Amino acid sequence: MRLDRLRLGDGRPGAFDRTWLPMFYAQLLEGHDLEQETIHQVLETEYEIPILSGHYRITAANAAAPALAVCMRVDFPCTRHQGKAKEP
Fold first, then answer.
1. What is the spatial order of strands in the sheet that 54-61 belongs to?
2. Would the pTM count as exceeding 0.70?
């Protein structure tokens, strides 16, 4: 499952975060407020599932791309964070 989130800094858009999760883990996040809790917090504290590994990539992104510009509410270069959790 793909989870897209907007990361804020001082209340302003700072990064677009895209995380890919296996469906098993994604379904555990349903009903959780991911604006107040992190994915790691939910999985580790609620379900005792430690995050053991994954990949994280940060790239420059063109915020002029229509979908990203709408999400970010900007028209200047920004960063895009992409993560993928691995099943243990």
1. 2-9, 12-20, 78-85, 54-61
2. no
